[in-house]
């Protein structure tokens, strides 16, 4: 107002009032229109939000339904699988074992022969099972080496002395040790073994300690050159972690270890102290058969399991 009413002016120009009235009406109606627009927008957004929220709650409900359905189906699958296993266990004839669905268990015995070995051989014979014996050198055990071969098992090499400080001193002393055992076995049985297992496994770190370098890197190709196929294991019976392990520990270690395997190479020992390994055998064999395994011996043709 001050803009139009100058000091000393007596009369205000009537056009100013008209102008002001127009401005007033104009701005009021502009504001009113603006408010109506905003209200429309507000209402529209609100209703869009309601639609979306409705949709969202719908989706949540159906995805909850979906999860429930999925869980139900999963339960049914497990029930059916268990039922199938049960039927197969009780009636093995319903699904003939073919080469495709065969699960192989390889029982392997290291560090023998000892007084336990004939007991193991008796058990294997009675149960029509072939196994693998990774033997050490003992001139008083020639009859047992012979029996292993005659009864159809694999007679395999595990070094003559099994003395880490000697065999892993250098490559030459390892090869000489193997040669001595080779000779003893050939003299006793007439056959030359071509399957072997390194004491401690092919990735053992003890060898490195004695040799001062990774001697296994040199021994492994040398043994291959000599025509040997070596095997490690993928199921440990745990019978070496104590002088005489608890029988149940051995049974459980083997049966749990083999559970997920199609091919189970099972590490056991038949040294003199391993009496509980012999005792564990019947339960191990029964448990593995229930898991669908058939027993085989390792040969140079068997698919190998190597730590390295
Ligand atoms: Zn051993």
- The CATH topology of the largest domain is what? TIM Barrel
Structural class, judged by helices and strands? alpha/beta
Overall, the morphology is: elongated
CATH class of the largest domain reads Alpha Beta
Q: In terms of per-residue confidence, which ranges show pLDDT below 50 for 5 or more consecutive residues?
A: none
DSSP strand (E) fraction? 5-15%
Can you tell me about this structure?
The chain has 308 residues and is an alpha/beta fold. It folds into 2 domains: 1-96; 103-295, Alpha-Beta Barrel (TIM Barrel). It has helices spanning 14-90, 116-126, 142-150, 164-167, 171-189, 206-211, 216-225, 247-258, 275-290, and strands spanning 103-110, 132-135, 154-157, 195-196, 229-230, 235-236, 263-269, 293-295. The strands form 2 sheets. Strands 1, 2, 3, 6, 7 and 8 form a 6-stranded parallel sheet that branches. Strands 4-5 form a two-stranded parallel sheet. Helix 3 links the parallel strand 2 (132-135) and strand 3. The mean pLDDT is 89. The chain binds zinc ion. Zinc ion (ZN) binds next to loops.
Question: Which features would summarize this protein structure in a list?
Answer:
8 strands; alpha/beta; TIM Barrel; 308 residues; binds zinc ion; single chain; 6-stranded parallel sheet
Secondary-structure topology with pairs:
Blueprint: H1 14-90, E1 103-110, H2 116-126, E2 132-135, H3 142-150, E3 154-157, H4 164-167, H5 171-189, E4 195-196, H6 206-211, H7 216-225, E5 229-230, E6 235-236, H8 247-258, E7 263-269, H9 275-290, E8 293-295
Parallel strand pairs: 1-2, 1-7, 1-8, 2-3, 4-5, 6-7
Helix pairs in contact: 2-9, 3-5, 8-9
Bound molecules: zinc ion.
Zinc ion binds next to loops.
């Amino acid at each position: 107002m001050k803009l139009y009413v100058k000091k000393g002016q007596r009369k205000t120009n009537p056009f100013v009032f008209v102008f002001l009235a127009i401005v007033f009406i104009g701005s009021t109606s502009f504001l009113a229109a603006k408010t109506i627009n905003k209200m429309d927008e507000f209402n529209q957004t609100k209703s869009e939000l309601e639609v979306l929220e409705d949709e969202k709650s719908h989706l949540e409900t159906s995805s909850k339904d979906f999860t429930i359905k999925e869980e139900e189906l999963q339960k049914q699958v497990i029930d059916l699988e268990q039922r199938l296993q049960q039927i197969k266990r009780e009636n093995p004839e319903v699904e003939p074992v073919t080469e495709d669905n065969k699960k192989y268990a390889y029982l392997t015995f290291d560090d023998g022969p000892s007084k336990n070995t004939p007991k193991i051989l008796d058990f294997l014979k009675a149960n029509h099972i072939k196994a693998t014996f990774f033997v050490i050198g003992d001139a008083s055990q020639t009859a047992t080496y012979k029996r292993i071969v005659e009864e159809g098992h694999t007679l395999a090499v595990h070094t003559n002395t099994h003395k880490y400080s000697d065999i892993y001193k250098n490559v030459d002393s390892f090869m000489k040790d193997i040669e001595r055992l080779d000779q003893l076995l050939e003299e006793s049985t007439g056959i030359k073994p071509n399957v072997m297992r390194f004491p401690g496994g092919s990735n053992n770190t003890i060898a490195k300690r004695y040799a001062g370098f990774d001697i296994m890197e040199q021994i492994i190709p040398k043994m291959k050159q000599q025509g040997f196929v070596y095997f490690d294991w993928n199921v440990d019976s745990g019978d070496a972690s104590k002088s005489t392990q608890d029988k149940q520990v051995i049974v459980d270690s083997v049966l749990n270890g083999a559970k997920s395997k199609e091919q189970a190479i099972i590490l056991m020992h038949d040294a003199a102290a391993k009496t509980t390994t012999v005792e564990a055998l019947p339960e191990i064999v029964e448990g593995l058969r229930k898991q669908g395994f058939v027993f085989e011996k390792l040969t140079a043709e068997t698919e190998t399991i190597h730590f390295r």
